[in-house]
Amino acid sequence: MLKAKIISTGSYLPQRRLTNSALERMVDTSDEWITERTGIKERRIISDEQVTSDIAYEASIVALERAGVAAESLELIVLATISGDMPIPATACFLQKKLGAKNAAAFDINAACSGFIYGLSLVSAYVQSGMYKRILLVGTEALSRFTDWEDRNTCVLFGDGAGAVVVEASDYGQCDSGILSVDIHSDGSMSDILNLPGGGSKFPASNDTINNRLHFIKMKGNETFKVAVRTLERLVVDALEKNNLKVSDIALLIPHQANSRIITATANRVGLPMERVMVNLDRCGNTSAASIPIALDEAVTAGRIKQGDYVLLEAFGGGLTWASALLKW
Ligand code: UT7
C-alpha cells in the first residue's frame, strides 16, 4: 500500500519586522496588551515589491533543494492561501511558473488557517490512490495586504510568510513513517465570525465596498477564541484515539499559531507539557495557512523532530474549518 511522506520542508519569512511598539504608533494599543492577550511580539511584513507567490517560491526552493529534487519532476502543486496574488488565476500557477515546474498541475485551496492540513488530506489521498507520486504542498500568506491597519482588533494579529513541503509516495511495507491520518472539518453556520466580505459575488468591488472597508479581514475575536479552545481539545483527543496513541507518545504538537492562550489551553486540557509544543507566534504572528508549515520547518531545522517521532498538527480558522494530521517522522 502507498503512503504519503513529507521528505523535506522549507520556509520563508520576509525581512521587514513590525514590532508591537511600532503598532502602538499606528492604533490605540500597547505592547503589554498584545503580549498578554495574544503572545505576539512581532510579525513579518512582505516588501512593497513582493507578492504571495514570491514568498511561496522562496519557501519552495528551500524544500526542493533539501529534497534533492528538480522542480520539473513535480507532478502537482497544491497551494493553501486566503491572500493570493489575484482572484484569478490560482497563485499556485504563478508559483509553478516561477519554479519552472512545467510538468505539474497546480491549484489553490482555501480553508483559511486550516488550509495546510486540508492540503495534507488531499496530497495524502492522491498518493494513496496512486495518482501522483511527487507533490509540492505550500501554505503562503500576505495577510498584510488584506489587513485593516486602522482596526486594532485585527491588525495586531496577522503576519506574512510561507512554508512548503515536498511529499512523496513511500511503500508502507518498507517504511512505517509518513502521514498516518488526517481529519478535516467545517461548519459554515459560523462563517460570519471570521471573513473578508468584499470583492466576491456578494459584495463585488465598488466605491461602497471600499468606503465600508469590506476588502479587509473581519473577525469577532472573542467568539472565535471560545470555539477554538473547545474544538481543538476534541481534535487532539480524536486524532490520538484514531491512531491508538497516548498523549505521552506525541513528541511534538505543532498548533496553528493564532494566540498563545489558545495554544496553552489546548496543551493543558490534553495534558501535554509546553516543552513538547512548538510556538513561534511571538516572532511570526498569525500567518493563517502558512503558520503550520513555517512552524514545522523551524522545528525540523532546530532538531526538535527526530526520525520515528510522532508529530501532531492541528489548526482552526475561518469557515469555520478545523483539522488535524498525525505524522510519523
Ligand atoms: O487564526 C484563525 C483563528 N483565530 C483565532 O483563533 C483568534 C481568536 N481570538 C483571539 O485570539 C482573541 O479573541 C483576540 C486576541 C483577538 C482578542 O482577545 P480577547 O481577550 O478575546 O479580547 P476582546 O476581543 O474580548 O476585547 C477585550 C478588550 C475590548 O475592550 P472593552 O470592550 O473591554 O473596553 C477591546 O476593544 O480589549 C480591547 N482590544 C484592544 N485593546 C488594546 C481589542 N484589541 C485591542 C488592542 N489593543 N489591539
CATH class of the largest domain: Alpha Beta
Largest sheet: 5 strands, mixed
- Would you identify the CATH H-level superfamily of the largest domain? Thiolase/Chalcone synthase
Q: Write down the CATH topology of the largest domain.
A: Peroxisomal Thiolase, Chain A, domain 1
Poorly predicted ranges: none
Cofactors, ions and other ligands in the entry: oxa(dethia)-CoA
Overall geometric form: globular
Mean pLDDT over all positions: 97
Topology, element by element:
Blueprint: E1 2-12, E2 16-19, H1 20-24, H2 31-38, E3 42-45, H3 52-67, E4 76-80, H4 91-99, E5 105-109, H5 115-129, E6 134-142, H6 152-155, E7 160-171, E8 178-186, E9 194-195, H7 207-211, E10 218-219, H8 221-242, E11 250-255, H9 260-270, H10 281-284, H11 291-301, E12 310-317, E13 321-328
Parallel strand pairs: 4-5, 4-6, 11-12
Antiparallel strand pairs: 1-7, 2-3, 6-7, 8-13, 9-10, 12-13
Oxa(dethia)-CoA binds at residues 29, 33-34, 37-38, 113, 152-153, 156, 221-222, 224-225, 228, 258-259, 262, 286, 316-317.
Write a structural description.
- This protein is α/β, with parallel strands linked by helices and 329 residues long.
- It folds into two domains: 2-171, 3-Layer(aba) Sandwich (Peroxisomal Thiolase, Chain A, domain 1); 178-328, Thiolase/Chalcone synthase (Peroxisomal Thiolase, Chain A, domain 1), CATH 3.40.47.10.
- It contains eleven helices and 13 strands.
- It has helices at residues 20-24, 31-38, 52-67, 91-99, 115-129, 152-155, 207-211, 221-242, 260-270, 281-284, 291-301, and strands at 2-12, 16-19, 42-45, 76-80, 105-109, 134-142, 160-171, 178-186, 194-195, 218-219, 250-255, 310-317, 321-328.
- Helix 3 (52-67) crosses helix 4 (91-99).
- It is globular.
- The model has no long low-confidence stretch (mean pLDDT 97).
- The structure holds oxa(dethia)-CoA (UT7).
- Oxa(dethia)-CoA binds next to helix 2, helix 6, helix 8 and strand 12.
